[in-house]
Write a structure and sequence with these properties.
The protein is α+β, with helices and mostly antiparallel strands. The protein has helices at 2-21, 27-37, 41-54, 59-71, 75-88, 94-123, 130-142, 148-160, 163-186, 195-202, 258-261, 270-281, 285-298, 303-315, 319-332, 337-349, 353-366, 371-398, 410-424, 433-445, 449-461, 470-482, 486-502, and strands at 207-212, 218-226, 229-237, 243-250. Strands 1-2-3-4 form a four-stranded antiparallel β-sheet. Strand 3 (229-237) and strand 4 (243-250) form a beta hairpin.
């Protein structure tokens, strides 16, 4: 009896399963699939809408409905229906099919939004942005974890001059990438850091995938485990160079396909920079500094933001605060040339030239070709010399028979000239007008006539790049006047006056 009873129960269950597996599809769904297979998407769409009205949990119907709308270029409804399909697709293989559809839709809509954005940039800010906004918002709705559409959307609002929407959108972007930023900050990683150094800290990757981009660079994505969670590290390796990290992501949705999780992801810092400037323009100084520090913590090479931070503190009368902050950063990171250079720059602004020079020298000991430090240490030596020259001139004013002590400032000017010459050794900086002027003045003051004449030749060669620069002609007028070249001096001064009037 017991054995027979078991057979009866199994028979009932098996019969139930058979009935469920071969349940007849509704006429609307059957007709919809037939029309869909015949590529009559409009007809299929009508039947599918009836089907989901009657059977709202039919994931396949929502999936097909989304595809019909996509093929008919209704991206909004395609998005809505694909999300509905995802909501109801709880079993395989439909679950994977819907996940694939969501990723496909996101990529297609995001690419269309990017193309519209590029066209917008070409037309100018007076053009309409409705299509761009709609496409990017749909992409955000489909995959809110992907930050790329938000970065573009924020920039569109900023270019259009809608500051409120730009700030709001940039803030959404920052919140979106915050988990990635926190991973970098927590582990003292920075953008551009060696992949090898990062993996040495995090451990051997579970898997690694590499592929080439359009520029021929190698894109590398490492799957690693951090605190029990999967994370994906993205790096770029240029030919002949080391692989440098560009981004990291963790806690990605479990519904994502492996190829989504392994997609190369670079953290875009520019939106944080733009938000910092918008906060600064809105006088929200504390928020601006918060964003600046966030960015500099993972991208310390951003000289633009470092300069803005110093400027904000200066405007608020808080120069000592930024000095203390940088002193702490230097203490914690004694081999970070960027922190050393920023610290030296603030010291120089406070006319603490000797301390500034010491820190610039430390930065240059780490990287002798660090251009910011090379230029700025030269400026430090000049400014220190200028202060001494002022002291000597005051002594002359007090006593006309006093002979200035050139040994106090000639060596300083000589060191400045060495650094400015090093800066010019890079072909990109060869015709930098500011450096040419500094060297010209130094050689004139120190009576190095041959070098001074060479600088005049170099300055004259720089004229084609300064045809609309009144300051260039004004300076050349002074140089010619000092040389007794009255005709050339007069022509240069006249050119400067003409340019000033036309500005």
């Amino acid at each position: 009896m017991k054995l027979m009873k078991k057979h009866i129960i199994l028979g009932i269950l098996l019969g139930s399963l058979i009935i469920q597996s071969f349940q007849c599809a509704s006429p609307d769904f059957t007709g919809a699939k037939l029309a869909y297979n015949q590529k009559d998407y409009k007809k299929a769409l009508v039947s599918l809408e009836k089907e989901v009205g009657k059977n709202p949990t039919n994931a396949e119907a929502w999936y097909l409905l989304a595809d019909c709308h996509f093929r008919l270029n209704d991206f909004k409804k395609a998005t809505e229906n694909s999300l509905q399909a995802s909501k109801h697709a709880t079993k395989e293989p439909m679950k994977t099919k819907v996940a694939d559809q969501l990723f496909f839709l996101w990529a297609e809509i995001y690419n269309k939004g990017t193309n519209s954005y590029n066209e917008f940039l070409g037309k100018g800010k007076s053009s309409d942005i409705n299509e761009i906004v709609e496409l990017l918002e749909l992409a955000i709705t489909l995959k809110p974890e992907n930050s790329e559409p938000l970065a573009i959307l924020s920039n569109v609002y900023e270019i259009k001059g809608d500051t409120a929407k730009a700030i709001s959108s940039y803030e959404r972007y920052v919140q979106q990438i915050k988990p990635s930023l926190e991973i970098l900050k927590k582990n003292n990683f920075t953008i551009g850091m060696s992949r090898e150094d990062v993996l040495r800290s995090l451990g051997k990757p579970v898997s690694t995938k590499a592929f080439m981009d359009n520029n021929g660079d190698s894109l590398i994505v490492d799957k690693i485990v951090m605190s029990g969670n999967e994370a994906y590290l993205s790096s770029v390796k240029k030919e002949g160079g080391k692989a440098l990290i560009e981004g990291i992501r963790s806690n990605l949705p479990s519904s994502w396909l492996p190829q989504e999780k392994e997609r190369f992801f670079a953290i875009n810092i520019r939106p944080i920079v733009n938000l910092s400037y918008l906060y600064y323009g809105s006088k929200a100084f504390d928020k601006a500094v918060e964003m600046i520090e966030y960015s500099l913590s993972i991208n310390p090479i951003d000289d633009e933001l470092a300069s803005l931070k110093i400027q904000i503190y200066d405007e608020q009368g808080k120069s000592d605060d930024v000095l203390k902050s940088l002193a702490i950063s230097v203490e914690k990171n004694p081999n970070n040339k960027y922190f050393l250079e920023q610290y030296a720059r603030v010291l120089a602004r406070q006319k603490q030239y000797d301390m500034a020079i010491v820190n610039y020298e430390k930065a240059l000991a780490i990287d002798p070709n660090f251009e910011n430090a090379v230029f700025n240490i030269g400026a430090c030596f000049v400014n220190k010399a200028v202060d001494i020259i002022d002291e000597e001139n005051k002594k002359i004013d007090a006593n006309s028979k006093y002979k200035p002590d050139e040994t106090r400032y000639f060596p300083l000017l000589s060191k400045a000239a060495d650094y400015f010459s090093q800066y010019r050794s890079n072909p990109v900086n060869k015709d930098n007008l500011g450096v040419l002027q500094q060297l010209s003045d130094i050689y004139l003051i120190t009576r190095q006539n041959d070098k001074f004449k060479k600088m005049i030749t170099d300055l004259e060669a720089a004229e084609p790049a300064n045809l609309t620069n009144a300051a260039y002609y004004e300076y050349m007028g002074k140089v010619y006047a000092k040389q007794g070249m009255k005709e050339k001096a007069d022509k240069s001064f006249q050119m400067a006056d003409t340019l000033k009037k036309n500005q």
